[in-house]
Design goal:
Blueprint lengths: L1 H11 L2 H15 L7 E5 L7 E9 L3 E5 L5 E5 H4 L3 E4 L20 H17 L15
Antiparallel strand pairs: 1-2, 1-5, 2-3, 3-4
């Protein structure tokens, strides 16, 4: 029996080791849960894949939903060697939005814009901690 098992392992190549290492990574380290938002990149590089949502976790692969609604499957042994940021387990995120307005925009219109932003944030209070409106000229 040992020779048959050894032959199967040789024929399968690295697959058994990859499956085991990927499964151990997911089971022991639990880098994410279903519903978490993550970014993934190669170590030392900028994240290529932004805003992935974990949809399903299997022993062999993890299913992600991209920001375009596409289903992305990545094998767990590959994820083990990648850099990952779990946005769902991180602290509050900061969103910076640059809005350009003409220099001749009246002060009243700018005040109206800030008031609208503050009203939106107050209506969506669980989603926002605070808002700062900063103005600069170029």
């Amino acid at each position: 029996y040992i020779s048959v098992i050894g032959s199967v392992i040789v024929l399968m190549g690295r697959a058994p080791g990859d499956i085991i290492s990927g499964a151990l990574y997911i089971l022991l380290f639990r880098p994410y849960d279903i519903g978490d938002r993550v970014t993934i990149s190669h170590p030392g590089e900028k994240a290529d894949l932004w805003s992935l949502v974990v949809k399903q976790i299997d022993v062999v692969r993890t299913h992600f939903l991209t920001s375009h609604g596409e289903l992305l499957l990545i094998e767990n042994h590959l994820l083990r060697n990648m850099s990952m940021v779990n946005l769902s387990r991180s602290g509050p995120t900061t969103m910076m939005i640059r809005v350009q307005t003409p220099v001749v925009t009246p002060k009243e219109r700018m005040t109206e814009l800030v008031d609208c932003i503050n009203q939106y944030v107050s209506e969506k209070e669980p989603d926002w901690i605070e808002v700062d409106c900063l103005f600069s000229s170029t």
